[in-house]
Amino acid sequence: MPDSPTPPALTEPVEDYLKAIYELESRFGAAATSDVANALDVAPASVTGMVRRLATQGYLDHVPYRGVQLTARGRQAALRTIRRHRILESYLTGVLGYPWDRVHDEAERLEHAASDDLIERMAAALGHPTADPHGAPIPTVDGIVVEQPHRTLAELPVGETARMLRVSDKNPSLLRYLAEIALQPGAEVTMVSRAPFDGPLTLRIGKNEPVVGPNLAAQVLVEAMPSPGPRSADATGSTRSLPSITPVAAASPKPKARKSSAR
User: Fold this and answer.
1) How confident is the model at residue 257 (pLDDT cuts 50, 70, 90)?
2) Residues 122, 88: contact at Cβ < 8 Å?
3) Do residues 42 and 52 make contact, with C-beta atoms less than 8 angstroms apart?
């Protein structure tokens, strides 16, 4: 791996602030002081002082009446910490066998102490993963983040199937429950029914039909299933893709394959 300029060392509190502001900015467009205080569990007065300092150092810009946004420099620093955190989580689960509900706190401690060389060796040992165990995209070394189109499980229409994409790593109890019902990144989930007046939702995951609340479903992100070809209903009424349809159609008849390029 070619050597790259080493960014200036940041203190642990600064890295935590930049990471929290990045996450809030991603959701709301800017980070309000009160939201930063809640995210980091610190007093608003402390946030005000740190924000002023980081703005002076070129990490933040003030957005009138809305809060702050990261500058290019601040975004680069935040993504560096996020990359370290998500690679550490991936290594802890993939190599050391940690359950996915226990890696967040460990990664929080290690992300400030591990060297960049160690992090990159971990990434290489894992085959350079693009997402962490909870489905969150891992930023590249150059600070590029590829976000997949998604919606919440709560928004999935009845009868539609989607693939579980992502969930926050911050709630161990939620993660343990999702593991119990096999709702983890990559799982196919169908919305079987929803009770009226914000009632419970019945899902189908494999052969099981767990019932969850709308609040839980709103915390789970899903992505649309690819549509390689026709879908067929099984005996239970769920739909499944027919993976053999597309290759057969693309390969036959051979004369048509010569006339136009196949996808």
Assistant:
1) very low
2) yes
3) no
Cβ contact 238:190 at 8 Å: yes
- In sequence order, which ranges of the chain are alpha helices (DSSP H)? 12-28, 33-40, 44-56, 72-94, 103-110, 116-125, 172-180, 214-217, 245-251, 254-259
CA atoms within 13 A of residue 50's CA, in its CB half-sphere: 22
- For range 51-61, the mean pLDDT: 95
Answering whether pTM is above 0.90, one says: no
User: Which residues touch 143 (CB under 8 Å, ≥6 apart)?
Assistant: 75, 76, 79, 80
> In whole numbers, what is the pLDDT of the chain averaged over residues?
87
Structure tokens of 138? 């891992």
> Residue 113 has what pLDDT?
93
Q: Number of H helices and number of E strands within the chain?
A: 10, 10
